[in-house]
Amino acid sequence: MIKLFRIVSVLEGVSYLLLLFIATPIKYLLDNELYVKMLGMPHGLLFITYVILAIMLKYEYKWESKKFFIILVASIIPFGTFYIDKKYFRN
Fold first, then answer.
1. C-alpha–C-alpha distance, residues 65 and 84, integer Å
2. What is the pTM of this model?
3. Is the pLDDT of residue 86 over 90?
4. Domain spans, the chain
5. CA dist 2 to 12, 50, 61, 68, 78, Å?
6. Percent of the chain scored above 90 by pLDDT?
């Protein structure tokens, strides 16, 4: 399950960066909502999957509340999921 979480984590991080740094500027600078609409739903699904997997892993691996909180907060910070992968899941 860790491998699946790592894959979802990277995909969620990439989708978040694309949404923040490409789609949103295009929406407001060029008045074109197409990219936000295209990236918004996949990002939302990846975010929900990330949170659900984190909850499942918390109970499976008996994570401390602090570690779990850091992993959840990282999902809303740009580049946060990449930090979590490096700090907690790379061997």
1. 15
2. 0.92
3. yes
4. 2-89
5. 15, 11, 10, 14, 21
6. 96
